[in-house]
Amino acid sequence: MKYKYIILGAGPAGLTLANVLKQNNENNFLLLEKESECGGLCRSKVIDDAYLDIGGGHFLDADNVEVCDFLFNFMHEDEWNKFDRISKIELDSEYINHPIEANIWQLSQKLQIEYLKSIAIAGCNLNKPKPEKFVEWIYWKLGEKIANDYMIPYNQKMFGEELNDLGTYWLEKLPNVSFDETLLSCLNKKAYGKEPGHTRFYYPKEYGYGEIWNRMGENIANNLLLNKKVTKLNILDKSIVTDDEKYEFESIISTIPWISFEEIIGAPDSIVDSIKKLKISSTIIEYINQNIDTNAHWIYYPSLTKKYHRILLRKNFLPNSKGYWTETNKNRFDYNTNNFYYENEYTYPLNTIEKPIIMNNLLNYMKKYNVYGLGRWGEHIHYNSDKVVKLAMDLGKKLLK
Q: Would you state the CATH architecture of domain 2-85+202-400?
């Protein structure tokens, strides 16, 4: 069985690329997915009579007009609710809006002074050189108090204890609020600085976020095979192997984790060995049948006394629902629970110091054999779903030229 294009993984990236091919009258492609349904980390299940997103909190960025217009072809805009994002941080039993440096004015005056003094002497405000290690960057950028109260414990809970394995090249995506803006926010009691991502977002009126991806899978059903786990990639004879079949390709687009291949044939040992150095974070989503009196859509919890690092309050964005779900690093989760939970082995690709070199060498080498990496796992970058849709749309256009 030989195909012009084989796509690995029916998450947002793979489904978008497959549908772009079909929309442009290219039908000589195959999409393989190891699970029994589409959606990847964006799948949803009905729990306690309402939808729960088993990969954590995923929303459609309302400000990404090109992506929204594309997805509305499969699920009309009328089927979505639009929200202004409300996200909060718990600090010592107080709740303030996210991001912290734009909203410390919501804390007591005493704490505001402590934070401002700390930020004022942060390395970036004293023109000290930017560090290369993550923890050192936090102190340099935000000051000691925000580092100790929020950023370091929160990221330890989310990514693991070895934070200095992470680089700093990816931090441009974080909200950037200057000291002057932080001071102005305290004086004028309103947030300043760049808005965080997903400030306005869409969420389905009657479904979980997984519904859009199910519909996209249905649209290319004749080119889709579920329950097909890819085990081997051979770039020399241009083939991939699943548990029971071999498929040949002219081009292959992988949206699955590179470390999930049991064998890669044809690549030099240096490339194959470097893949083993890529690191990930696994999480567990747990449903809690309790209501919290807040209008927030999600809340961040830096305190190490709580196992989870954030919660998502589905009653505030999904009509006729109740309760909330937590997201917890697998290494911190207490399995002694009677609640529904779902384990995601591949949640976050970690931005380790050596990752850019590894991925640059890997993707450039693979491209010589018409093997492409795409999306969160194909590129090993923590992209949101709307970002991978845009990347897949762009790659589809390039492939079809």
A: 3-Layer(bba) Sandwich (3.50)
Strand partners, 325: 287, 312
Spatial neighbors of 14 by CB under 8 A, at least 6 apart, are: 7, 8, 31, 33, 40, 253, 255, 374, 375, 392
Return the SS3 of 330. Answer: helix
Going by the DSSP 8-state scheme, the letter that residue 131 receives in this structure is P
Q: Could you tell me whether strands 239-242 and 230-234 are parallel, antiparallel, or unpaired per DSSP bridges?
A: antiparallel
Instruction: Read off the pTM.
Output: 0.95
Answer yes or no: are the C-beta atoms of 231 and 262 closer than 8 Å.
yes
CB of 144 closer than 8 Å to CB of 289: no
**Eight-state DSSP code of residue 39:** -
25-34, 160-169, 256-265, 359-368: which has the minimum mean pLDDT? Answer: 160-169
Per-domain residue ranges of the chain: 2-85+202-400, 100-188
| Burial class for 359, CB neighbours closer than 10 Å (0-12, 13-18, 19+) | buried
